[in-house]
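Translate sequence into C-alpha cells.
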Amino acid sequence: MNGSGTPHPPDGASAEVRWVHADLGLDESHRTALMRLAKLGPPAEPVRLPPPTQCADLLQRLGVAPPDIDEALAARPSKAAHPGMWWLLERCHHELVQHMGRPGSLGGWPALPETHGAVGRYFYVWVYLATLPFVRRYHAERGIPDETSWEILAALGAQLANRRALFGTGGLHTHEWMTVHFRGLIYALGRLYFERLPIWFDAEDRTVGRRAPRRGEWSLGVHIPEGRLTPEACDASFDRARGFFREHFPDEAYRHATCVSWVLDPQLEEYLSPTTNIIRFQKRFSLLPAGEANDNATVVEFVFRRPLTDLGDLPQETTLQRGIVEHIRAGRTWKFRTGWIDL
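Result follows.
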C-alpha cells in the first residue's frame, strides 16, 4: 500500500507480472505480453487522461456514438480504484508512444475478462484517449491535414459500433487492431485504407518489365472498410494514396500495395458474376500461392455484422450473402488470400 491506501506493484518485473496477472484475473496466455510490458515500464511523464469536461467532445470527434460515449465516460479507470488496470494503461500507452510511426506488431495486449464489466470492456478506449495528443502531434509533424488525421482516428467509433452490433454490449474488442491507427501507420484515403508496412514475402512474376515485391521493401497494405467497391472509387483511392505518401512520407519508397483479405478468395467466383465489384477488385491483384488461414467466422462477422452461430438466422438478401452461407453449409471454408499490385 502507498500513503493514500492504494495498492502498488512490487519491485521487479517478475513480481509485477504476478501481481498484475492476479489483480486482473488473466489467463496464462497473457504472461509473455505482461512481461514485455513490465520490462518496458511506465513512461517518463505520468499518464494524463483528458479532463472529464473534454472527454465527451473528444469521443465524438473519434466517431463514437452517444450510447458508447455515455458508457465509456462512466467506465473511466483510475489509479486508486483500478491499480492493476492503471499499471496496464501506463505501459500500453508507453508502448504506443515509443513505437509511434514504426510499423510492425507490438506483440499483443491482454483482453480483459468479462468480470471487469464495462470498465474492462472500455479500458483500451482510455489507452487511446491518453495517446491521442501524441498521434495528433505525429500527424501534424508529417504535415497531414487535420481532416485526414481525425478521419482515420474516428475508426475507433466504428469498431465500438461493430462490437455492439455483434455482441449487443458496448466496448472495444479489436483493441490490438486499433494500435495501427494510433501509431500513425494507417490512413483513410477515399474508399480504401492504406497502411505503411514492410513486405513479408518474396513474390515471383515473369512478366517482362515488371518488378515483383521483395521482402523488407515498403508497401501500402490495403484495408477494405464496409461499403461498395466500385472500380471508380477504388481507382480514385489508389491515385490519392500515391500522392499522399509521396508528400507526407517522402523518405519511404512505395512500389507495391499488398492486401490480405477474404475478398481476394478466388472461391467467390463460384457465386459472383465477373462484373461484380468484388470480383473486379480481386482481379487487380496477383495472388500468392494458397495457404492462408481458413476463417468462416470472420467472413460472417464482416458481411452480416453477426457472430457465426446459426446459419439459418442469417439474412439471404444478396447474392453475396447467399453464397457465403451456401459455401459454409457445404462444409467448405473461406480463405484469407494475399495479393499484391503495382503502384
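Note: The chain has two domains: 13-146, 187-342.
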